[in-house]
Amino acid sequence: MLALPARLSAFLLCFPLSLSAQASTSEPSKQSTSPVIPAFTANYTLLHKGDPVGNAVRELKYQENNKASYHYHTDIKWLIFSDRRSETSELIVNNYLVTPLHYRYDREGTGRDKSYEWRYDFANKTANNLKKDKQVSLDIVDGLQDKLSYHLQHRLTLINNPEQKRFSYPVISTSGSIKDYVYQYDGEEELMLPYGLVKTIRLKREVTEKKRVTYAWFAPKLNYLLVKLYQVKAGAEQFEAQLASVESKN
């Protein structure tokens, strides 16, 4: 009974999104005067079979020299289970392209605590595991994202190319391996959420070997903010996340 919320939180932290095939970290475009996506804080309600089990917060803060801090955390309490996770990606936002620099992940609660920290050097095609003092070589550099920065990259891709229907994205894991995620456009839908009524586009990802299907909804009028997540595994509902509020910080 305790495994379900753990998967819920893990998915929200690791939700894989897309990168435009046109983007390249080796050829960044000119930085615009103002950011494409203003700084923001978005709050989500996490549910299991319609019952609230926790909340999540996603926020973007800008710094100097085109750098930004992208943060995401979840807090779940369900029966005797508790799970708190936090992710932060320090990155560069150059118009419609995100380049990750430093990634940190922490998890505590019921079960084993976990912590990961990586620093990326794309110029030398290396990634450094700061917790284990270990360096790995990167075969892929162009378009590579960490396990959080791809969330932001996906929004920028949708804003830049809203007609795109298929998304393939390479992401470096906490072990240093790289895996592609593929999402497909799956239609449009109007949703009633805690935030209110919103028109959305829906994307779908199928992982055949794990019998898992993930659906994600994005709202064009909210600058393609992620507003809902839903996952089914082996035909059984796993969880749902719904946007509760969002605050832009221009």
CATH fold-level topology? YmcC-like fold
Question: In sequence order, what are the helices and strands, one letter per element?
Answer: HEEEEEEEEHEEEEEE
Extract low-pLDDT stretches. Answer: 1-6, 8-32
What is the percentage of strand-forming residues?
over 45%
Could you characterize what this model shows?
This protein is mainly beta and 250 residues long. The longest helix has 12 residues, at 3-14. A hairpin with a 2-residue loop joins β3 and β4 (81-94). It has a single domain (3-248), classed as YmcC-like fold. It has a 14-stranded antiparallel β-sheet. The model is unreliable at 1-6 and 8-32 (pLDDT under 50). It contains two helices and 14 strands.
Summarize the structure.
The protein is mainly β and 250 residues long.
Characteristics of this structure?
250 residues, mainly beta, YmcC-like fold, 2 helices, 10% helix, globular, DUF3108 domain-containing protein, signal, DUF3108
Draw up the topology in text.
Blueprint: H1 3-14, E1 40-48, E2 51-62, E3 67-78, E4 81-94, E5 97-109, E6 114-121, E7 126-129, E8 134-137, H2 149-160, E9 166-172, E10 178-193, E11 196-207, E12 212-219, E13 225-233, E14 236-248
